[in-house]
Design a protein that fits this description.
It contains nine helices and ten strands. It is an alpha/beta fold. The radius of gyration is 22 Å and the shape is globular. The relative contact order is 0.14. The strands form three sheets. Strands 2-3-1-4-5-6 form a six-stranded mixed sheet, sandwiched between helices. Strands 7-10 form a two-stranded antiparallel sheet. Strands 8-9 form a two-stranded antiparallel sheet. It binds iron/sulfur cluster (SF4) (2 copies). The site of one iron/sulfur cluster has 13 residues, from helix 8.
Length: about 300
């Protein structure tokens, strides 16, 4: 059985990538499962989607814990533990990272037994702020690495999954997908099918038994409004709102009350943004009357609060 995981950010097309690949494998005669797993609800948040494919009926269920192929659409997710990109990888796993870095750089950084390949990022995709859609490219690359999906089956899968779009969109995505497919020609068939898993091998999770307590003790108590301090939603951000204090006219009730995460606080009439909890929705940019908040690409602004 092939077990494939696609990791990316909401908006990059990972769910579509899994569906294109799943449909292409189905066209090749495989039994297929494909499903996305969303964490949080918004564009930019880490998500993954997975595909299982086998020549016989698939009885395995749930998320893939021991992947044969992991496709990473956004390499900034790799160091984020909550994204789970590296979960369950071993020497059998092939890790395909869409990145501007080389495979050697990633081997050094990750110090993993997994095999690593890089899918080069196009020059015009260097600014990740726009969260470029790369689902078709990732599906094409994965199809080639499996070595069991023809270009015709890939095209069939893509056309089925993008059937609601017009012909020009389908053609553009097909070209992107086939370009990625051909780029990995030398690596065709490099992914090996993982072993079958027997129900007898099932290891139950490390359950934590919670003793029964009275509701006064066991029920959660909320002491304050707004975002949990422990959930660093700033990790999701691909765009950073940056306040130009020279242009800010101190109408603080607007940005601070409309920020859905309560990430804008006010001191002496001056707004400031809590970047640990600002998730980059850009509501504040849209509502600021004098346009004193600018959206900047996260990578270009890390550690800087004033606009360029
Ligand atoms: S809405 Fe804009 S101008 Fe008003 S306080 Fe916020 S940043 Fe300043
Ligand atoms: S982008 Fe603005 S409105 Fe959205 S969470 Fe960040 S500070 Fe709040």
């Amino acid at each position: 059985m092939y077990r494939i995981r696609f990791h990316g950010r909401g908006g990059q097309g990972m769910k579509t990538a899994s569906r294109i690949l799943g449909s292409a494998l189905f066209a090749e005669g495989f039994e297929v499962q494909d499903a996305p797993r969303y964490g949080a609800e918004r564009r930019g948040a880490p998500i993954f989607a997975y595909v299982r494919a086998d020549r016989t009926p698939i009885n395995e269920r749930g998320i893939i814990r021991r992947p044969d192929l992991v496709v990473v659409a956004d390499d900034t997710l790799i160091p984020i533990p909550a994204a789970g990109v590296l979960a369950g990888i071993d020497a059998q796993t092939l890790l395909l990272i869409r990145s501007q870095e080389t495979a050697d750089t990633w081997r050094t950084r990750l110090n993993t037994a997994a095999q690593i390949l890089v899918l080069p990022m196009d020059g015009d995709l260097m600014d990740r702020a726009g969260l470029p859609y790369v689902g078709a490219a990732c599906a094409g690359a994965a199809a080639r690495l499996l070595g069991v999906v023809s270009q015709a089956a890939l095209a069939q899968g893509l056309n089925e999954e993008l059937a609601m779009h017009d012909e020009s969109v389908r053609q553009r995505n097909l070209q992107t997908s086939l370009a990625a497919y051909q780029m990995l020609e030398d690596e065709a068939g490099r992914v090996r099918e993982g072993p079958e898993v027997d129900a007898a091998d099932y290891v139950s999770p490390d359950w934590v038994n919670l003793p029964f307590d009275h509701a006064r003790v066991a029920a959660p108590v909320i002491h304050a409004a707004l975002t949990s301090q422990s959930v660093k939603t700033g990790l999701w951000r691909t765009l950073r709102p940056v306040i130009d204090h020279a242009r800010c006219n101190r109408c603080w009730w607007i940005c601070s009350s409309l920020c859905p995460d309560g990430a804008i606080s006010i001191a002496d009439g001056q707004p400031s943004i809590d970047y640990d909890h600002c998730k980059g929705c850009m509501v504040c940019v849209a509502v600021c009357p004098p346009h004193a908040i600018e959206a900047q690409a996260e990578r270009a602004t890390a550690g800087r609060e004033t606009p360029r």
